[in-house]
Design goal:
209 residues, 3 helices
Amino acid sequence: MIDITRPLDTRTAAWPGDTGLGIDWTLHMSRGDNVTLSCVTLSPHVGTHADAPLHYEPHGSPTGEFDLSAFIGPVRVVDARGQYSVTPQLLSDCGAIGVPRLLVRSLDVVRPEEFVSAFPPLAADAAQMLVSAGLKLYGTDAPSVDPVDSAAMSAHRALGSTAIPILENLDLSRAEPGDYDLLALPMKLTETEATPVRAVLLPAGALHR
């Protein structure tokens, strides 16, 4: 099993202007309370998470309408490090057109406490090609599938045209390119535009043994 979820703590970087993880100790045994009890605040986009169409479309579906089966099953991991963007040619060269789920490694090193703004985004035409080929889920170790300064969010919207969940802020540093089984269950937040995810990779076929 390879854990591809980033650790989440109060040092984890949030998107600039977004809300990071905060912990308020309502009760604490070190203060003489009989139990320790915390209150947690955070944006659902902090750490490893899944975007729903509501994140980028005014009337898009929320996380409560995710097709849970999209998060479980065969997946291909490809390496896009050093590329300007994830293009149709790159996807074709990696044999990624037509796979049910796709995870793209774009970062040399994952540092959860640092926000990374430079990474190869998913080109809009590549996103549309994946949609046309029947993709069920797309994931990346970057903070977004679009450039950080993108207002159009073209890749988000192309994937969202068929409500494809988007996993972001993965940690693929220990995942060699190839085929695996993915288990990436989202938290059951029903009304939000994103939700935290715990994601792991298993050997290909492990879920069917």
